[in-house]
Every structure is written in C-alpha cells, then in structure tokens.
Amino acid sequence: MCHKEPRNPRAAAILALTRFWQKPAPIRDFSGDALPAADRRLAMNIVYGVLRRRRYIESLISRLCRHPSEKLDVTLREALAVGLYQLVFLERIPEAAAVNETVAAAKQLGLPPHLTGVLNGSLRGAIRQRGTLPSPDGFLNYPVWLTERWRMRFGEGEMRRICAAGNIQPPLALRVNTRRCSPDRLHVLLREAGIAARAGRYAANALLLPDYQGAITSLPDFAEGLFHVQDEAAQLACALLGKSDEKLDILDACAGLGGKTATIAQLFPGALIQAVEPDTRRRELFAANRRRLDFAATLFAGTLGDYAQNNIRLFDRIFLDAPCSGTGVCARHPEIRWSRRAEELPRYQIGQLALLAQAHALLKPGGLLVYATCSLEAEENAEVISEFLGQQPDMMREDCRLFLPETAGGLVKDGFFQPRPSQRSDGFFAARLRQETGSIRSAAVSRNNDRL
C-alpha cells in the first residue's frame, strides 16, 4: 500500500485509522498535513466518529461484506468504516459524494482494483439497505473489559449511560479569563460572531459551545486571551485549591499545556506559581498559552522528581493532575477506549503514588494538596488516596462538597469530586488533602476562605 501523506480528507482519515490499529497511539490533529482547514476538520470528525461508533460500524462491515471485519484487508476495512460513518452519521454529505470520494481516497492509498470494487459495492449496498440496517443506539462501542468493570461498579443502567455519553461529541467548553473578560461579555462576543453558546451547568466561569466545529484559534478574541479550552470538571478540580489574593506559593506539579495553571493563576492573582513539565513540546505550548492568557508562572523543565531533588522551595498549595488511563475522557479522545488495557492500571497507580509522595515532600506545614485524574477507575482514584493516606499519617482528607459551588454538589460522592460522563461532564476525580501538622487553620476558617 502507498503510505505517502495524503492531500484528501478521507484518505487522511483512512490512513490515520489504519496506523492507529497497527499501533494504537493518540490521534494527531492533521495540523501538519497539506490540507485546508475545513478538510482537516472533516478528517478529524470522521476519525473520531469512527472510533466513537466502532462496534456499530464493524457490525455493518461484517453484514455488508459477509465476512468478519477483522478478517478484511486493513485499508479496505478502514475505508469501509470511513464511508459508512459518512453515510449513517454525516447527513450533510450527499450519499454519492460519500461513496465516490471514499473510493477515490482508497485508490489514492493504493487499494488494489478488486478490493476497490468490494468497497464501492459495499457502500452502495449500504445505501440500498438503509431502511433495514440496525440502529446504532443498541451498541456500547467500548471494549468488554471496560463495560464489565463499569457494570460491576456502577450497575447496568449507569454503565450504559456512560457509554452513550462517550459515543457523542461533547460540547466545546471554555474557561473565561476573568482577568480580561466576564462570562457575559464573552457570551455577547460569541453571539455577535454567530456562535451559539450557553452558560456551564456547574462552573461559574464556563461557557459551552454545543455546535461549534471550527478551529479554536478562529473563535473571536482567541488571540486576545479572553478564554482557554477547559472542561467544567477540570475547572472545578482547580477550584478545590480555593481562591485568595494572598501571596501564596503554589505548585502545578504536572502542568501539561498550562490550562490548569492559567485557571489557578486567575483564582490566586497574588500567588507565586511554579509549574513543572518534562515534555519539550508541551512546554512550548505552555509558553504560548502563558503569553496569550498573560499569566505569571515559572516553568521547570523536568519531572516532579527532578524538581524535588534540585529545589528546596516549599508550597502552600499543590495541584497534582496525575498521568492516568484517561477513561473519563473517552468522548473527547475516543482512541483511549481502544488503546488502554486493564493490566496497565497497576502501573498507573504506582506512578501516581510516587508523584503524591514527591508532592507531599514539597508541601509546607498545614499546606493543601489537590490530587486529580481524568480516570473513572478506582485503582487510580480512591484506592490511590487510601494507600497514600496510609503512608502519610500527617495528611487528612477534606470533603470536596464543602469547597465547591452548590451547583456541583451532585458531582461529589464519599467526599471525593467524581463526576461521570453521564452527568454531562468529563469523567474526573479529585481529592482535597491537607497536612495536619504545623500551623493549620480550623476546618471552618478553611471552608469560609476557600469555597467559591
């Protein structure tokens, strides 16, 4: 097969899916491809849509080809998936265009003529059989190991609701930069640009864009730094640090691209913020976001362990968004459900406990530590906290409900912040932990100062 980078959105989608199944990894956004912006968006829409609806599409392929989908040539299989997704889910694309353009894309990628004929015939067969094709609603579109563990933990009904939420594209969520703009003002700017927006369900400074399909950089006043992309769950996890105008020392222990650092900077305008990030590309994007959003933070190039070994500075508050399986964000990143394995969870847990120990060593007496993941798995969440508290008797757990807005009360269970995708949020987990030793305020004072 030809592996030349395509200049066609459907060919790009077929190639991305083919490569993913050969070696599961995060799907890139096609920004480096020689595609116009609209074609990049279409390619990403198709790839993510196929991954969200994978089991359903596989059932259609097996039905139309009369062979199990896994037995087919991989390029043929992914071309069928791309074509079927357009025919079933992208109503704005005419049937003829969906078929003809997908067949042409497969030819461009070197699919042999006899398999091109199978592709063309199968897609046209889907059009003829449209009235008798099964409904997509009955398909979970998740691997069995995940659905079984969610069934055991949450029950049949909630497991199905979680899966259903993961099979649709969630709305784009923005966190308003309150240093430059109010939610109402940004709402007006979006409306004037013809972009539908609504207030968040849980977070006061969130705006949701349910229908927006364009580039983030094309949103009004993006360059002016009036907002950054951040789901409500992540916004509320940051809020567990509290808010203050005091000159506090704050550490973002796994800073990534800087979204949570930006939110923390808005909650603590007088703080001295230290961010830690080992990945070079993420540090570059962090620096770009820091310039655009105009927040102050020092960025350390290395791991949290590296920082702990080379610095003696201690912190009043630490936010630790630990690397995790990501099973709570499968709607936004559908490749996660197909690339994770149950046997990986203990490895994540080991890493999370190590990070917690390193963060604990950097905490001032009486300091506050917020631990967060975007996982739904107990091994990475409550079990990690239980193990950590057993190792560190000077740490106590505080009830997250006391430090979140009342609108988010339903997202707290057993004192942990743990929204699920079925609650119109990213799946998330956060625990608020305080060191008991040294100078420590009473729980009542802490609650009054920190609650948003």
Description:
This protein has about 450 residues and is of the alpha/beta class. It folds into three domains: about 130 residues, NusB-like (N-utilizing Substance Protein B Homolog, Chain A), CATH 1.10.940.10; about 60 residues, Sun protein, domain 3 (Alpha-Beta Plaits, 2-Layer Sandwich), CATH 3.30.70; about 220 residues, 3-Layer(aba) Sandwich (Rossmann fold). The protein has 17 helices and 13 strands. The strands form three sheets. The protein has a seven-stranded mixed sheet with strand order 7-6-5-8-9-13-10, with helices on both faces. A hairpin with a 2-residue loop joins strand 11 and strand 12. Helix 1 packs across helix 4 and helix 15 packs across helix 16. The protein is globular and about 75 Å long. The relative contact order is 0.09.
Helix-strand layout with pairing:
Blueprint: H1 9-22, H2 37-52, H3 54-65, H4 74-89, H5 95-108, H6 113-128, H7 144-154, H8 156-166, E1 172-176, H9 183-192, E2 198-199, E3 206-209, E4 227-229, H10 232-239, E5 249-252, H11 259-267, E6 272-277, H12 280-293, E7 298-301, H13 304-310, E8 315-321, H14 335-339, H15 345-361, E9 363-373, H16 382-391, E10 395-398, E11 412-413, E12 416-417, E13 429-435, H17 443-450
Parallel strand pairs: 5-6, 5-8, 6-7, 8-9
Antiparallel strand pairs: 1-3, 1-4, 2-3, 9-13, 10-13, 11-12
Helix pairs in contact: 1-2, 1-4, 1-5, 2-4, 3-4, 3-6, 4-5, 4-6, 5-6, 7-8, 10-11, 15-16
